[in-house]
Amino acid sequence: MRNILCFFLILCNCNVSAQPLEQRIANAYKKFANDQQLAFGSASLTVLNAETGEVVFSENGNMGLASASTLKTITSATAYHLLGKDFTWETTLGYTGSLSADGTLNGDLIIKGSGDPSLGSDRYEQSRSEVILKRWVEAVSKTGIKKIGGRIIADDRLFGTQTMPGGWTWQDMGNYYGAGPSALTWRENQFDLIFRSGAVGQPAALVRTEPNMGYLKIVNEVTTGKSGTGDNVYAYSGPYANIIYLRGTYGIDLKKAISASVPDPATDIANNLKARLNARGISVESSITGRELVAENVPIRSAEKILDTYTSPTLEKIVYWFNQKSINLYGEHLVKSIALKQGKEATTPDGVEAIKDFWNKKLGIDKDAMNIYDGSGLSPANRITTMSMAQILQSLKKEPWFGSYYESLPVYNNMRMKSGSISDVIAYAGYQTSSTGTPLVFSVMMNNYSGSSSSARQKLFSMLDVLK
């Protein structure tokens, strides 16, 4: 009897594995889409042959859905095409006016940004804030400047004053993942908040910020949450604000820093350089940003002498961290840089339009299939189809830079794919080789699911397992 049972089990397994890949995907998708967690939601899955582009499976492939951070796959691919893998940004330090015999600069010291997303970031040895500040202080000192009679001007004009893409929410923009792009981004436009929990329901004390952000007023309304409730702290502030409100709960057993966005990174970088110069004995009394001078109708002179030109890591290295760690800020920098490269203003709408134009011309993708508002996927207003995303990913296989692009994608569920999640949205897009050796590219999105995100994610992973 036992032998007969084993025989039937083996036979069933053989029948399942003998099913065509298309049928196995269809069965798995049907189970996934009919789950109670999607009773009031929407889902879409498109799977293509990665070599030929042939459709292996597609359900709701032309339905526009919120993509969350899987949109980064398209932004980074477009940046590779239009900017190039060796593209870099330059930040210059220079001055106006003349230098007196006593070492007084009768003019301004100017930091001019071109939109480097990595300036001051700890992810790259060359860009670390300590390295950059030391480099600039040395450049000023070697020139013989002992006193700056004018001001430090942080010229952040290139990216304009609209730092937040349309559709970003008030709850997001004050937090580290909602940091907006600046022509003078600094330390990825974020800082840490160190808390000390109290009794449950009582205030959680803000011990300090790292680094010191003394020029900002921080109003702490955070209370202590129960054990196991974790981080539910939100920072509320807008672009160029000088006040930040902290609200929510900090778990009593939590031991981690909370990160918030810097409202005005140009002010931050100018303050940092001013403090370092004064500590070195080079006197400077004030600093201001290009944005502030424009608002006051004060003309900004170009630097007459360049003291230092700093070149960022290459786009290839930027994209690696952009996709690996899903850094929203990098995506918004890429969008504005793409706009500039296309001869447009450095605005998010112009950059987004350039992205849509490119894929429409290259692959014939209808612009209405890419109704996007940013480069990171943070905007809940974004809508894109899984078919268009899969087609774009499939087209990259023949590009000479595909290897580095592929390596930029993280590994989840033992699959090379980019994740995406915002409120009630889970999405993945990437590459997988089937058990029979068929190379596949896929895009899957689920919107408005109910219940826990961890449960929904595991069900999605179970469906994707049939691609292996």
TrEMBL record:
Example of a GO biological process term: peptidoglycan metabolic process
Entry similarity comment: Belongs to the peptidase S13 family.
Protein known as: D-alanyl-D-alanine carboxypeptidase / D-alanyl-D-alanine-endopeptidase (Penicillin-binding protein 4)
Regions that span the bilayer: none
A GO molecular-function descriptor: serine-type carboxypeptidase activity
Signal peptide: 1-18
Entry keyword annotation includes Protease: yes
UniProt organism field: Daejeonella lutea
Pfam family, one: Peptidase_S13
Keyword annotations: Carboxypeptidase, Hydrolase, Protease, Signal
Domain of life according to the entry: Bacteria
